[in-house]
Amino acid sequence: MLENLLAGSGLGREVINDAVDRFGTPIYLYSVSAMINRFNSLSSLLRDNLDLYYSLKANPNLGVVALFVLLGTGIEVSSGGELALARAAGSTPKRILFCGPGKTLRELESASQSEAVISVESLGELERLRGICRRLDLPADVCLRINPGTGAEAARLQMAGVTQFGMDETSAREAMALCLSDPYLNWVGFHCYMGTQILSHSQVLSNTRLGLEMMTHLARTFNVNVKLADIGGGLGVPYHDGDQAIDLPALAGGLRSLLAEALTTPWFRSCRFIMELGRYLVAEAGVYVCMVVDVKRHRERRFVVADGGINHFFPAGAIGRVVRRDFPLVAITPRQGESVSTVDVVGPLCTPLDVLGKNVALPPVEPGDLICIPRAGAYGYSASPLLWLGHPTPGEILVRDGEFFAVREPGEADDVMAGQRLPPSSFLRAAQIHSA
To answer: What pLDDT score does 194 carry?
Structure first.
């Protein structure tokens, strides 16, 4: 069971135990070899047709980002902080695409000065960017994020249809006219991302077709050459029982046909096509490891309490979902010949929300044993409320051929005080007197 779940990670029981001996728990482990293998398997099928970009939001660990920069990916960022991280990881500005629906004036200015390509999501954002470029006397490379009216039905999270992302065709036409009339707005192409965690290759192909149709219509209307076309991605990972991995050869064949057809048109002949990938590149390369601190029975239920919970791996909490689907949970400590029983695995937080898994089948575990969540390399550390109740933050460790590098050391008990200042007692007394 454990070996099957960890097969894509390159991490096994011995490596996990060695890492815990050195760094303690809770920790995230990221396999360098697994990330390289996933990238190579994908690029061997797609690279002739597509320029792969790593979507930094999936895992913004500096070591992980630096690895993908070395492998030759571009980087897609969605905030000023991610832009700074991409630069620190070695990405060149022209290989950075800045996306996101809520870019501040400061972020637009920073992106312009760094010469990143800016994916503009609205007419208002385009006007704000134009004002900044004129003030700086510095043109910006701009692509327009477009949003077809049809949603991506097979996506776990939809970003097409009526959402906060991108522009409809009417707004996109106005934005094109503005870009082509202003020397400070260097229009380079389009961006279309319709959904994420898609396990159906036919849905990805349908999304791509819809996006290319909208791009073609706009390019034909304005008789322009598209230099850059981000067709999105959203390739999913099979987390749960019944999930089937995406058919990569079928996807690659379909994409080759769609892009070859686009390249025969006068508007895409010199176009660079981009596919942005995050979860697909890193999810299966990571594991989250925590330690059992208590095992108890409460009436008819048995609880395994760990030293980490949804404060470290928030996706396991399934908060806000109508139907809860547990991530796989595996006991690392082997106990030969002992029967499996059903337990609830919970974290240390003082809230009933802190549940890593309900009715999980585990062999008997004891305090000090290790529990692992496989396929935890995406949207784990960065998507979690790490300081909830003041527990220490988990370490983030790169693993390469049995060697470890702590990109982020495990936290300490006083992490919760980072960035805070104690106000002087005179300030607090004055407030107390005033309230009285």
So the answer is: 81
Asked if residues 52 and 74 have their Cβ atoms less than 8 Å apart, the reply is: yes
410: domain CATH number? 2.40.37.10
What are phi and psi for residue 423, nearest 5 degrees? -70, 150
Which candidate, 238, 235, 236, places its Cα nearest to that of 255? 235
Q: Which residue has the tokens 């996933």?
A: 38
Residues pairing with 230 in the sheet? 191, 274
User: In 286-354, at which residue ranges do the beta strands (DSSP E only) sit?
Assistant: 286-298, 301-306, 330-331, 341-346
Least confident of 149-158, 336-345, 407-416: 149-158
Q: What is the CA radius of gyration of the chain?
A: 24
Helix H or strand E segment including 400: strand 395-400
Q: Which domain holds residue 131?
A: 60-277
Residues 100 and 140 in one domain: yes
Helix (H) or strand (E) holding 18: helix 13-23
328 lies in the same domain as 373: yes
Separation between Cα atoms, residue 397 and residue 23, nearest integer Å: 9
Place of tokens 């609205």: 122
How far apart CA 175 and CA 143 sit, in angstroms, is 10
- Do both 212 and 314 map to the same domain? no
- 96-115: average pLDDT: 95
Contacts of residue 249, defined as CB under 8 A and 6 or more positions apart, other chains included, come to 45
* Mean pLDDT confidence for 89-111: 95
Domain membership of residue 234 (yes or no) is yes
Q: Are 142 and 118 in contact (CB under 8 A)?
A: yes
> pTM for this structure?
0.91
Q: How many domains does the chain have?
A: 2
